[in-house]
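can u do me a favor
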């Protein structure tokens, strides 16, 4: 599981996917999110700009990201 430490109050979903290297670009992030391949806290998420906060968990392609303050 990858961990992202928040510098601000939140990070956007597309930025989080890029930050840990799950995708290479914002365009790729948009595509996988719009295709329903990404889950946030167990539910499919379709908004690239979804704000992620402390303790949120993102799942993509069998991998996970934990958001921490």
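np, heres the sequence
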């Amino acid at each position: 599981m990858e961990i992202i430490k928040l510098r601000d109050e939140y990070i956007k979903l597309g930025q989080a996917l890029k930050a840990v290297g799950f995708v290479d670009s914002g365009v790729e992030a948009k595509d996988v999110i719009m295709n329903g391949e990404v889950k946030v806290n167990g539910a499919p998420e379709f908004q690239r700009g979804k704000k992620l906060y402390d303790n949120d968990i993102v799942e993509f392609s069998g991998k996970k990201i934990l958001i921490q303050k």
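Residues 2-68 form a domain with the Structural Genomics Hypothetical 15.5 Kd Protein In mrcA-pckA Intergenic Region; Chain A fold (CATH 3.10.290.10). hope that helps!!
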